[in-house]
TrEMBL record:
Membrane topology: Multi-pass membrane protein
Start and end residues of each ABC transmembrane type-1 domain: 83-295
Keywords tagged on the record: Cell membrane, Membrane, Transmembrane, Transmembrane helix, Transport
PANTHER family: ABC TRANSPORTER PERMEASE PROTEIN, INNER MEMBRANE ABC TRANSPORTER PERMEASE PROTEIN YCJO
UniProt-listed CDD domains: TM_PBP2
Protein name: Sugar ABC transporter permease
Organism: Streptomyces asiaticus subsp. ignotus
Matches recorded under SUPFAM superfamilies: MetI-like
Subcellular location: Cell membrane
Family to which this protein belongs: Belongs to the binding-protein-dependent transport system permease family.
Keyword Membrane: yes
Positions of transmembrane segments: 21-41, 87-108, 120-141, 169-190, 272-295
Source taxonomy: Bacteria, Bacillati, Actinomycetota, Actinomycetes, Kitasatosporales
Broad class of the protein's primary localization: membrane
Keyword Phosphoprotein: no
Length: 304
């Protein structure tokens, strides 16, 4: 009996795909690939090509070479403030909001009382779009009827938190960090739950303090989460648009590259070639940050 079963198994061999199986696989793989090409890579390559042209979206397309980039870098005043603000977004979310989200995750992972309530409360802003966060920021930081001036009792000399270009970028960053912190907290909290408790116990037996255990044992095991959080932080910072547009259309100290792209492509000017050049610069900056971060993290992972 066992010999007969073995002969049957040998006779069957590997299962071959029928034409129907291949058709189903082709459809399941082909549709996502086509959607990715049509919605992601197609517009990306089109933007790169259009960045070397002069086109208003209606008339003929005229090739201008790198003239759009020359104008962008030398004769377009909003460009460099927007670059500075985008880099400031990356620095603030990466160096302030992300570590604070990690700190909250560590505290909640210790099992404090009402941890479920804190998780829900801190995660609640994540379900809001940045446009809604922008409207909430107006309610809080408004000069005449804002909650912050009322709390500080600045009725006689109210501070224009959103109108002063020296202050409004920091107020917007605080509002964006309020949303970003909850997202980071949930990601790190999920990572901390997966850490093997025996690692912490072994470190404690070796005489490591709680801080040493975290930085030398726990944090290295969170490398996959660190990669995800790092990439998300850069993307969130560089694609920011709706919060500043909801406040003042991205002007008067709140300029961002994404706002300049929108103003030039769908604004009154309809300079699609010039707006595409700004989009290519934003794409290059994004890829530079993300690729550099991923390479460093993957190298560190191999060494570990």
């Amino acid at each position: 009996m066992p010999l007969t079963t073995a002969r049957r198994a040998k006779r069957r061999g590997p299962r071959r795909f029928t034409s129907r199986d291949l058709a189903v696989i082709g459809v399941l793989l082909g549709i996502p690939v086509l959607l990715d090409l049509a919605l992601i890579w197609g517009p990306t390559l089109a933007s790169i090509g259009l960045s070397f042209t002069n086109w208003d979206g209606i008339g003929d397309i005229h090739w201008v070479g790198i003239d759009n980039y020359k104008t962008l870098f030398t004769d377009y005043p909003p460009f460099w403030p927007a670059v500075r603000n985008n880099l400031l977004w990356v620095a603030f979310l990466g160096l302030v909001a992300t570590p604070f989200g990690l700190l909250l995750a560590v505290l909640l992972d210790k099992g404090v009382r009402f941890s479920r309530f804190y998780q829900s409360t801190l995660y609640m802003p994540v379900v809001l779009s940045l446009a809604i966060v922008g409207f909430i920021a107006q309610l809080v930081f408004s000069r005449d009827q804002g909650a912050l001036n009322a709390i500080l009792d600045n009725r006689h000399d109210p501070v224009d938190w959103l109108g002063d270009p020296d202050l409004n970028i920091w107020m917007v960053l605080l509002a964006a960090a309020w949303r970003h912190t909850g997202y980071v907290m949930i990601l790190y909290l999920a990572g901390l739950k997966s850490v093997d408790p025996s690692l912490k116990e072994a470190a404690a037996i070796d005489g490591a303090s709680e801080t040493q255990t975290f930085f030398r044992v726990v944090l290295p095991t969170l490398r996959p989460v660190n990669i995800i959080v790092g990439v998300i932080t850069v993307i969130e910072a560089l694609r920011a648009f709706d919060i500043v547009y909801a406040i003042n259309h991205g002007r008067n100290g709140l300029e961002l590259l994404s706002v300049l792209v929108t103003d030039n492509i769908i604004g009154e000017a309809s300079r699609i070639g010039f707006g595409s050049a700004i989009a290519v610069v934003l794409l290059t900056v994004s890829l530079g940050f993300i690729v550099t971060y991923l390479v460093q993290e993957l190298r560190g992972g191999k060494k570990g």
